[in-house]
Write a structure and sequence with these properties.
With 203 residues, the protein is mostly helical. The protein contains ten helices and no strands. The two termini are 31 Å apart.
């Protein structure tokens, strides 16, 4: 039932926006009652947190686990982030409407519980890549982390504009090309001079 509530909420939030969807609508779509939302998540904000954790948590855990074994190829991180964003289009919609908007009601929650936990791992990944000589030694890892996340997320944040303006469908094949392009672009910009870039890793 918990999973059914998360699935129903993600579909309804994507279609109507967070504020326009009621707990009752989510419960009906999941085949249960609003009391179950309170039982599992307390309220809609708790449901929002759980939705994000379900899709972002595995990416964060992958980075943390990989870092325990040594350096991590940034291309692997790029692939996981972009595959996650592509498979869950509601993430970009909620970030635009509820986090980036001037009065985004979930900005603090997003910073504290998601971006604030993920960013240090991305920075550590880039620090290790720099220490191992896989990226430029003069790289500012904080700015590089911002660039990496921008490259991963902006195509999905701007998909409703990029589609008609650039003729992008962002279907499965095009997303694969976009991931490979993004990994290559980041590698070319960060690889030490005179060192060949590696092809983008595919999971």
């Amino acid at each position: 039932m918990r999973s059914a509530l998360l699935d129903a909420a993600s579909k309804l939030f994507l279609k109507h926006g967070f504020d326009r969807v009621t707990a009752r609508q989510i419960a009906v779509a999941a085949g249960t009652t609003p009391a179950m939302i309170h039982y599992y998540f307390v309220n809609k904000l708790g449901l929002f947190r759980a939705m994000l954790e379900r899709v972002i948590g595995p990416v964060r855990d992958m980075i943390a686990g990989s870092l325990q074994g040594g350096a991590v190829d940034p291309a692997v991180l790029i692939r996981m982030h972009m595959q996650t964003a592509a498979a869950n289009p509601w993430i970009a919609t909620l970030i635009v409407n509820e986090v980036l908007a001037e009065k985004g009601r979930f900005r603090g929650t997003f910073i504290r519980e998601f971006a604030g936990r993920q960013a240090p791992l991305v920075i550590e990944l880039l620090q290790r890549a720099r220490a191992s000589g896989n990226v430029r030694e003069d790289l500012d890892v904080r700015l590089a982390a911002l660039s990496l996340m921008s490259l991963c997320m902006f195509p999905f944040l701007a998909r409703h504009v990029a589609g008609p303006v650039l003729g992008l469908k962002l279907d499965e094949d095009e997303i694969e090309r976009l991931i490979a392009h993004t990994a290559r672009l980041f590698a070319v910009g960060t690889t030490p001079p005179g060192r060949a870039t590696r092809p983008e890793h595919r999971a």
